[in-house]
Design goal:
Structural class: alpha/beta
Strand content: 15-25%
Distance between the termini: 34 Å
Length: 388
């Protein structure tokens, strides 16, 4: 446990109330959390065990009979990679009704469960997405934005001097194990090109037709491929904020990949040079990751994250819970033009706070009410509950 990084997701507390689905991309640390932080489960099964998988496929009642044989009628039972066997949820459902067992059901994707029409136990289990490392988990380490861009925040890559090799393997294994497992993509080379473009345009307003033209496939296929990334938690959408009246808002969503290290690898970049367009995009992508993770872990509605883009051109990167407007600039010296989007949104009188996140050294409160925060101050305030 010496190399283990303590995680802030309070899964134990959630399991005290009821069973829980825990979804997250591979290598975000779900299994490590269970080993190091979760109170001892009464039974722990992984459906990656092919023999166990085959036996449960033929006889789902094996779960019930094993628990009965072991005298387990309460406590925590862990079933890993639950998406491999959606039919097992019928047995889990009955056991939740008949016993005091709280199940922790983990997986890297809810896609197959959705496609099978599984209702996620009809509200008898909560749901939590597990994310790469977040700000309060890494403050004891020597942190620079360059390191975050280089390693990303998957725990193994963040802690490994040879992060490039690990990230190369991760990207390859993701395509092999996750995408091929969906059995919906017959031709992987175009999908590889799609992934590269999705990484290059992470944080941009999604234009399906442009991506389809660049990859050489239909717009319908591109939409479905984006949905696969979202369902397997490799990416997420930020929808537009549409309640402004003075300026007509854009109606298209933005798409972000879930980790800046994986994004860099998919783009084929060795470094993210300061002062480049990519540096600014990665900085915005990183802040998006933190806000989304905070909303998830805090039990707030993760759908409460939007962006605003007026058709006249003004833009604010993030609207949090329709209360806080956040513009992200990678600059170390904020200029008046960096504030244009926030000033335009202020004219609508809809938000409680207006914040510009940057790499300045000191926080500043301007006469017009805009708060300029160094990114470390912003992240500390976000996770400390002082932004919302």
């Amino acid at each position: 446990m010496d190399d283990y990084i303590y995680r802030v997701a309070e899964i134990d507390k959630k399991l005290e109330k009821k069973s829980l689905f825990l979804f997250g991309p591979r290598q975000t640390g779900k299994s490590s959390y269970i080993r190091n932080q979760l109170r001892e489960p009464r039974l722990s099964w992984s459906l990656l065990d092919n023999e166990l998988y085959r036996n449960l496929s033929m006889r789902p009642s094996l779960l019930r009979n094993t628990l009965r044989a072991k005298g387990i009628n309460d406590g925590i039972v862990v079933i890993d990679e639950i998406q491999r066997l959606p039919d097992l949820l019928n047995e889990v459902h009955m056991l939740i009704e008949e016993t005091d067992i709280h199940f922790l059901l983990t997986g890297s994707s809810a896609r197959k469960l959705k496609k099978k029409g599984v209702n996620l136990l009809g509200g008898r289990a909560g749901k939590l997405n597990f994310h790469p490392l977040v700000w309060p988990e890494i403050t004891d380490y020597e942190i620079t934005i360059d390191k975050i861009f280089r390693t990303g925040l998957l725990p193994a890559a963040f802690s490994d001097d040879d992060c490039d090799s690990l990230l190369n393997d991760y990207v390859g294994l993701y395509v092999k194990e996750e995408i091929e497992a969906e059995r919906e993509i017959r031709n992987l080379p175009p999908f590889w090109e799609f992934l590269r473009i999705a990484a290059t345009e992470s944080g941009e307003i999604t234009n399906y037709e442009n991506v389809a033209r660049d990859v050489g496939i239909s717009g319908v296929s591109v939409r479905e491929w984006y949905n696969i990334l979202i369902d397997t938690l490799i990416g997420f959408e930020v929808p537009p904020y549409r309640k402004t009246k003075l300026r007509k808002p854009n109606a298209s969503s933005k798409f972000y990949l879930f980790d800046v290290g994986v994004t860099r690898k998919l783009q084929g970049l060795s470094v993210i040079e300061e002062g480049t367009t990519e540096f600014g995009r990665y900085f915005e992508n990183y802040i998006a990751m933190e806000i989304r993770s905070f909303l998830d872990y805090s039990g707030l509605d993760k759908e409460g994250l939007h962006y605003w883009h007026a058709q006249s051109g003004q833009e604010v990167d993030f609207i949090i819970k329709e209360k806080v407007a956040v513009e992200v600039k990678a600059t170390k010296h904020v200029s008046p033009r960096d504030l244009k989007g926030l000033k335009a949104l202020m004219e609508e009188g809809l938000m409680e706070k207006y914040i510009l996140v940057c790499r300045e050294d000191y926080p500043q409160l301007l006469d017009n009410g805009i708060l300029i925060l160094p990114y470390k101050d912003f992240l500390s305030d976000l996770w400390g509950g002082r932004i919302l």
